[in-house]
Automatic annotation (TrEMBL), chain A:
GO cellular component labels: membrane protein complex; plasma membrane
Coiled coil: none
Entries under PANTHER family matching the protein: ABC TRANSPORTER ABCH.1, IMPORT ATP-BINDING PROTEIN
UniProt keywords, alphabetically: Antibiotic resistance, ATP-binding, Cell membrane, Membrane, Nucleotide-binding, Transmembrane, Transmembrane helix, Transport
Stretches assigned to the ABC transporter domain: 21-237
Gene Ontology molecular function, alphabetical: ATP binding; ATP hydrolysis activity; transmembrane transporter activity
Protein name: Putative ABC transport system ATP-binding protein
Species of provenance: Nitrosomonas eutropha
TrEMBL record, chain B:
Membrane topology: Multi-pass membrane protein
Localisation: Cell membrane
Name of the protein described by the UniProt record: Putative ABC transport system permease protein
InterPro entries reported in the protein's UniProt record: ABC3_permease_C (IPR003838), Membrane_comp_ABC_pdt (IPR038766)
The organism of origin for this protein: Nitrosomonas eutropha
One cellular component (GO) term of this entry: plasma membrane
Transmembrane helix is among the record's keywords: yes
Chief place of localization: membrane
Length: 238, 834
C-alpha cells in the first residue's frame, strides 16, 4: 500500500525535536452584524517541549483567541493544531475535554476558582475528574507547595487575589500537565504580588519541565520566556 | 471515575455554601403541601364517608324481600367486617282499645353499626326538658322502644305492655332518633323497635307479608370495597346493595364537590411550587455556568457533567422529598388533631398513598424542570473561562419547560382523577404561560420604545426591566402563574361555599307532608298561618303504574338492573306544572310549547330516571291510575338539583291532563326547632298525612359542609405558602445581578435611597404585570372550573382585577425590597471581591 509521506514524517523522531504544540494556518473569523471579521489570521507556530512562549500584543489583538484555539477551547475557521502529536480538531468536543484533562493545565486572569469549593476542593477537582484515588493528599501537598497549607479549608472569597492565584497554580500543576496555558495570570494583581506569583509559576514550571504558553502585557514577564510572539490585529509579527 | 462521590461532595459543598436553600425550600413546600393535602383530604374524605354512613346505620346495606342468605354475613365476617341484620315491616300495634299502624324494626345485636340511636326520657313534672341519651345495645327480648308518636297515639306509659301481632311486649324506652331514620324516604311514623328474638312470637312473619330484610355491613374501607365487589354477582333478584351515595344523592354531590375541590387545591399548590422550582433552577444554572466551563476546561466530558448533575439532583430530590413527606406527616397530624377538636369527629388514619404521591411529585417536579436545562448546562462552552459573554445557547428553551409541563400534566391527570379535568387545568396553565409570555414581551417592547429621558427612579426602574427583558418576563410569568393559582382557588372557594350555603340555607325545608287531600289544602295553610310558618308551595301528585312503553307492555323481565325493576314495580308519582322549577334544567327536548298539538300529551322526565329505565325522547308511555289510563309522550328530559331538598318529581305533565284523576298533594316546609311541638297538633288535625322528617339528613349535610370548609381554609393556607416561595424564588433569581449592580452603582456614587427607589419601581411594575396576568387568567380559569368541574355558576367580579393587581404590586415590592435590603447595606468592595 503506497502512502504519501509528509516532510514531518521523514524527520527522525527524537523526543526534543518533535514539537509538542504545532499550529498551522490557524485562522479564526467571526460574524458580527452580518460582517465577517478575521480576528486571527494564518498563525503558524511550533513549540518544543519545555519551551516557554510569551504571546504579547495590544488589547484586542487576538491573544486570548489564540490561546483558546491552541488549548482546544474553541474551534478555528481554518487550520490545525497538534498537541503532543494529536490533531485536536479531528477530535470531538468530549475527546478534546479528556485530552485537556490529561495534558493541559490552565491559569486565568480572573482565577476561575469554583466559589462553592474550598481551596483544597478546588485543587482536588481535576484529580477527581480524572478519577485519581488519593486526590486529597496530592492536593494537600500541592497547596503546601504554593505556601497555602494553612488555608486549605478557606473558600475563594476568603482569600486575597494573590492567594487565589496560588490555588490556581496548585490546581494547574496537580495533574502534572505537559503544557500550561496562562491568560494574563497577573492581570488582576499588583506588581509585587504578580512578581511573586510569576516566580512561583516559573519555578514549578522548571521543576516539572512543563511547556508554557503565556499571554501577557508585561514586558518584564515576556523577557523571562524563551520566545516571544507578538500579535498585531490577529497576525503574528517578528 | 467516581462521579457519585464527586457529586455528593459537590452537593454537600453547595448546600453548605447556601446555594440550594431556595430550590430545596420550593421542593419541600411542593412535596409537603401535596402530601399534606392528600393525607388530610384522605382522612377528611374518609371521615365524611363514615359520617354519612351513619345515615345508613352501616357502610353498606343489603336489602331483600326474603331473609338475607347467611353466607353473605359469613363472608363479610371472614374478611374482617362487622355485620348485623334487621327486618322492617308495617303492622298494627295496640294497647287497650287503641291501635296504630306502626313501622316496626326488629334488630339484632350490633345495631346500629354506624351512628347512634338516641333515647329520651318522657318529660315529667319536675324535669320539663327532655334529656337525650345514647342507647347502649338494643331492646332486650320481651321489650320494645317506641317513638313518641306511639306513646301519644296509644296513650301508653313506660312499663305498659303493647300487643305486636301475637306477642305482648313491654315499652321501656322512647326513641328520640335512629341513625338510619330517613334513608329512601320510606320512614313512616310512628316507629317501634324490638328485638329480633321476639319476631317469631309475633307470628307476623308469614308468606306474603311485606317484610324488608336488611344486612348491615361496616368496617375498613378496602374490605368494604372488597365485599361490595364480591357480592355484586351473587345477588339474587329482589336483593340490592345500597351505600349512602345511592341512598342520598344530595350527600353524594356534596362529597363529590368537596373531593374535587380539595384535589384542585392540591393541584394549585403543585403549579405554584412548579413555578418556584423553575425559577430556582434558573438561578442554579446561572450560578453553575462558570463551574461547568471550568470543569470542561479541566477535562470533564459532557456525559461526565450529565452524570454528575443527575446524581446530584436525584439525591437532592430524594432528600428534599423525604423531608417534605416527614413535614407533611407532622402537619397533617397536627391539623387533624385541630380539626377533631373543632368538629368533634375522630378522623380515621390516612393511607400511605399520599406519601408515595408526595415523593413522586417531588421527584417528577425536580427532574421535570431541572433535567432539560441540565442537558443544556453540560454543553456550556469551555471558552467561557476566557470570554465571559458566552451564555448557554438556549437557556430558556420552550422545549425544556415543555418537558416539565408535560410531566406535570401526567401528574395532574393522575391527581385530578379525571383525564378531562387534568388536561383542562394543564391546558389552561399552558395557554396562560404562552399568553403571559407573548403579552409580557409586547409590553416590555413597549417600554423599550417609550424610553424616557428623565433620570428619576421611574426611568431607572423601567430601564432595569428593559435590560433584564428575558429574566423579567420569566419572573412576571412565574409570579403571574402562582398568583393565578391562588386567585382561582380563592374565587372558586368562595363561590363553592356560597353556593353550598345557598343550596342549604338555615331554613331549607326539613319536613315533607305527603298525602294532603285537595280539600285539606286551605285548612293546612290556615294551620301554618296560625304558627307563623310561611305558606309553602303545594304540588299535586297522581299515582300511576307504568303499563306500556311505545304500546309494548312493560314486563319486569326486560329490566335486569334491580334498581330499574324496583322503579317499574312501584307506582309512579306524576305531577303537573306549567312552569319549570328553578332547580330543574332541560337537557334534551323542550318545555311545554304553546303551539303543541293537544292530541298528543307531553311529559317531562328526569334524566337519570329515564336512563335507568332506558327511556328516551319521543317514547310514548301509558299509565294506569285509579281513575283510568292515559298516555303521554316524553318531550323533554330534565336534570334536577336534588341537594336543594325541594319537592321534585321524576315525571311531570302539563296542567289539565290529569284533572280527572284522583290527586293528592305534597309539600315541604321548614320547621324551626322551637316549633317542633306543633307536629303533634298537625298529625292530630290531619291524621291521614304522611310526615317525612329530613332534618337529620340536612343537619348531616350542613355539618359536612362545615368540615369541608375548614379543610379548604387550611389547604388554601398551603397554597399561600407555596405562593410565598414563588415570590421568594422570583426575587432571588435576579439577586446575583442585583448585588453586583448595586455594588457598581454605589461605587459610582449612587445613594442607597436612589437604588431602593429604582428597584421599588422595577418590582412594582413586575408586580403589576404579574397581577394583571393572574387576574385575567384566574377569571377565565375560575369560570371554566366552576362550570365544568364543580358545576356551579361563577360570575367573575371586576374586583378580582383590582385586588389581584394590588396584592401583587404590594407583595412583590415588599418582598423584593426586603430581599434586597441586605444587598444595599453591604460595602461595595465586599461585593465586588466576590
Ligand atoms: N466571538 C466573538 N465575536 C466577536 N468578536 C470577537 C469574538 N471573539 C473575539 N472577538 C474579538 O476579537 C478581538 C480579539 O479578542 P481577544 O479576546 O483575543 O483579544 P486579546 O488580545 O485577548 O485582548 P485583551 O488583551 O484585551 O484580553 C477582539 O476585538 C474581540 O472583541
Ligand atoms: Mg485577552
Amino acid at each position: 500500500m503506497a502512502r504519501k509521506l509528509t516532510v514531518e514524517q521523514l524527520i527522525p523522531v527524537n523526543g526534543n525535536d518533535q514539537p509538542i504544540i504545532q499550529a498551522s494556518n490557524l485562522t479564526r473569523e467571526v460574524e458580527t452584524g452580518g460582517e465577517r471579521l478575521t480576528i486571527l489570521q494564518d498563525i503558524n507556530l511550533q513549540v518544543s517541549a519545555g519551551e516557554s512562549i510569551a504571546v504579547v500584543g495590544a488589547s484586542g489583538s487576538g491573544k486570548s483567541t489564540l490561546l483558546g484555539l491552541l488549548a482546544g477551547l474553541d474551534v478555528p475557521t481554518r487550520g490545525t493544531v497538534f498537541l503532543d502529536g494529536e490533531d485536536i480538531f479531528k477530535l470531538d468536543e468530549d475527546e478534546r475535554a479528556s485530552l485537556r484533562g490529561r495534558l493541559l493545565g490552565f491559569m486565568f486572569q480572573s482565577f476561575q476558582l469554583l466559589p462553592s469549593l474550598t481551596a483544597l476542593e478546588n485543587v482536588m477537582l481535576p484529580l477527581e475528574l480524572s478519577g485519581a484515588d488519593n486526590a486529597r493528599d496530592v492536593a494537600h501537598n500541592w497547596l503546601a507547595r504554593v505556601g497555602l497549607e494553612k488555608r486549605v479549608r478557606h473558600y475563594p472569597r476568603q482569600l486575597s487575589g494573590g492567594e487565589q492565584q496560588r490555588v490556581a497554580i496548585a490546581r494547574a500543576f496537580v495533574t502534572h500537565p505537559k503544557m500550561l496555558f496562562a491568560d494574563e495570570p497577573t492581570g488582576n494583581l499588583d506588581a509585587t504580588t504578580g512578581a511573586q506569583i510569576i516566580d512561583l509559576m516559573f519555578q514549578i514550571n522548571r521543576e516539572q519541565g512543563t511547556t508554557l504558553v503565556l499571554v501577557t502585557h508585561d514586558k518584564s514577564l515576556s523577557a523571562r520566556c524563551s520566545r516571544v510572539i507578538e500579535l498585531v490585529a490577529g497576525r503574528a509579527v517578528d | 471515575m467516581n462521579m457519585i462521590r464527586l457529586s455528593l461532595r459537590m452537593l454537600l459543598r453547595d448546600w453548605r455554601a447556601g446555594e440550594l436553600y431556595i430550590l430545596t425550600l420550593a421542593l419541600v413546600i411542593a412535596v409537603s403541601s401535596v402530601a399534606t393535602v392528600s393525607f388530610f383530604s384522605d382522612r377528611v374524605q374518609k371521615a365524611l364517608v363514615l359520617e354519612s354512613n351513619q345515615l345508613l346505620g352501616g357502610d353498606l346495606l343489603i336489602t331483600s324481600d326474603n331473609p338475607v342468605p347467611p353466607s353473605y354475613a359469613e363472608h363479610a365476617n371472614q374478611i374482617g367486617l362487622r355485620t348485623t341484620h334487621l327486618a322492617k315491616f308495617p303492622s298494627m300495634v295496640s294497647f287497650g282499645d287503641n291501635s296504630l299502624l306502626t313501622s316496626i324494626k326488629a334488630v339484632a345485636p350490633g345495631y346500629p353499626l354506624r351512628g347512634e340511636l338516641k333515647l329520651t326520657n318522657p318529660p315529667t313534672e319536675e324535669n320539663v326538658a327532655q334529656s337525650v341519651r345514647i342507647a347502649q345495645g338494643i331492646p332486650k327480648p320481651g321489650t320494645v322502644w317506641v317513638g313518641e308518636k306511639v306513646i301519644d297515639a296509644l296513650k301508653v306509659t313506660l312499663g305498659d305492655k303493647v300487643e305486636v301481632g301475637a306477642a305482648e311486649l313491654t315499652v321501656v324506652s322512647i326513641v328520640e332518633s335512629e341513625p338510619d331514620h330517613s334513608v329512601g324516604f320510606v320512614s313512616m311514623n310512628p316507629r317501634l323497635l324490638m328485638n329480633e328474638k321476639d319476631l317469631a312470637a309475633t307470628r307476623l312473619i308469614q308468606p306474603g307479608s311485606r317484610i324488608s330484610y336488611q344486612l348491615l355491613v361496616a368496617g375498613e374501607e378496602p374490605q368494604v370495597k372488597e365485599f361490595r365487589y364480591w357480592i355484586k354477582d351473587r345477588l339474587s333478584p329482589g336483593e340490592r346493595v345500597v351505600s349512602i351515595q345511592e341512598a342520598r344523592p344530595e350527600i353524594r354531590s356534596a362529597l363529590d364537590r368537596a373531593g374535587k375541590f380539595l384535589n384542585l387545591a392540591a393541584l394549585a399548590s403543585v403549579v405554584v411550587a412548579a413555578a418556584a422550582i423553575a425559577l430556582a433552577i434558573r438561578r442554579f444554572i446561572q450560578r453553575h455556568l462558570d463551574g461547568c466551563a471550568v470543569m470542561r476546561c479541566l477535562g470533564a466530558t459532557e456525559s461526565d457533567l450529565l452524570r454528575l448533575y443527575s446524581y446530584y439532583f436525584i439525591v437532592l430530590g430524594l432528600v428534599a422529598s423525604l423531608s417534605g413527606c416527614v413535614l407533611a406527616v407532622l402537619t397533617q397530624e397536627f391539623l387533624s388533631y385541630w380539626l377533631e377538636e373543632l368538629i368533634g369527629v375522630t378522623l380515621p388514619l390516612p393511607s400511605s398513598l399520599p406519601a408515595i404521591q408526595g415523593m413522586l411529585t417531588g421527584m417528577v417536579l425536580l427532574l421535570g424542570f431541572a433535567l432539560p436545562p441540565l442537558l443544556n448546562l453540560r454543553q456550556v462552552p469551555a471558552l467561557r473561562v476566557i470570554r465571559r459573554d458566552l451564555e448557554l445557547v438556549n437557556m430558556h428553551s420552550l422545549a425544556g419547560y415543555g418537558f416539565g409541563v408535560g410531566i406535570l400534566s401526567i401528574l395532574f391527570i393522575w391527581k385530578a382523577g379525571s383525564f378531562k379535568l387534568g388536561i383542562m387545568i394543564m391546558l389552561g396553565f399552558l395557554l396562560a404561560v404562552i399568553f403571559f409570555g407573548l403579552f409580557g414581551w409586547l409590553l416590555i417592547r413597549l417600554f423599550l420604545l417609550t424610553r424616557s429621558p428623565g433620570s428619576g427612579p421611574w426611568s431607572y426602574g423601567l430601564a432595569n426591566i428593559r435590560r433584564r427583558a428575558i429574566p423579567s418576563l420569566v419572573q412576571a410569568t412565574a409570579l403571574g402563574l402562582g398568583l393565578m393559582a391562588l386567585l382561582t382557588l380563592t374565587l372558586t372557594r368562595n363561590d363553592l361555599l356560597q353556593d353550598w350555603q345557598a343550596r342549604l340555607p338555615e331554613n331549607a325545608p326539613n319536613r315533607f307532608l305527603v298525602n294532603v287531600q285537595p280539600d285539606q289544602q286551605e285548612k293546612l295553610m290556615v294551620f301554618f298561618d296560625g304558627y307563623a310558618i310561611p305558606r309553602p308551595k303545594v304540588f299535586p301528585m297522581v299515582r300511576g303504574r307504568l303499563l306500556k312503553i311505545n304500546d309494548r307492555a312493560v314486563s319486569l323481565e326486560d329490566y335486569p338492573d334491580p334498581r330499574a325493576k324496583q322503579l317499574i314495580n312501584r307506582e309512579f308519582n306524576l305531577s303537573w306544572t306549567d312552569t319549570l322549577q328553578a332547580d330543574n334544567e332541560i337537557v334534551a327536548g323542550h318545555w311545554w310549547r304553546e303551539e303543541a298539538v293537544s292530541s298528543e300529551h307531553e311529559l317531562s322526565m328526569e334524566e337519570g330516571f329515564a336512563e335507568t329505565l332506558g327511556l328516551k325522547l319521543g317514547d310514548r308511555l301509558s299509565f294506569y291510575t285509579g281513575g283510568g289510563s292515559f298516555s303521554a309522550t316524553i318531550t323533554s328530559l330534565r336534570t334536577v338539583d336534588w341537594d336543594t331538598f325541594h319537592v321534585n318529581f321524576f315525571a311531570v305533565v302539563r296542567p289539565g291532563l290529569l284533572d280527572n284523576y284522583p290527586a293528592s298533594y305534597i309539600t315541604s316546609f321548614y320547621l324551626p326547632p322551637d316549633k317542633i311541638h306543633i307536629m303533634q297538633e298537625l298529625t292530630r288535625i290531619f291524621p291521614n298525612f304522611l310526615v317525612i322528617d329530613v332534618a337529620s339528613v340536612i343537619e348531616r349535610v350542613q355539618s359536612m359542609i362545615g368540615q369541608v370548609t375548614h379543610a379548604i381554609e387550611f389547604v388554601f393556607l398551603f397554597t399561600l405558602l407555596a405562593g410565598f416561595a414563588v415570590m421568594y424564588a422570583a426575587i432571588a433569581s435576579t439577586q446575583d445581578e442585583r448585588i453586583y449592580e448595586a455594588a457598581i452603582f454605589r461605587t459610582l456614587g449612587a445613594k442607597k435611597q436612589q437604588l431602593a427607589r429604582a428597584w421599588a419601581v422595577e418590582f412594582a411594575v413586575l408586580g403589576a404585570l404579574a397581577g394583571s396576568f393572574a387576574a385575567a387568567g384566574a377569571s377565565v380559569l375560575g369560570y371554566l372550573i366552576g362550570k365544568y368541574a364543580l358545576h356551579i355558576t361563577y360570575s367573575p367580579s371586576p374586583w378580582i382585577g383590582v385586588i389581584g393587581i394590588l396584592v401583587s404590586v404590594i407583595g412583590v415590592t415588599a418582598f423584593g425590597l426586603i430581599g434586597t435590603r441586605v444587598t444595599l447595606s453591604q460595602p461595595p468592595l465586599q461585593v465586588l471581591r466576590k
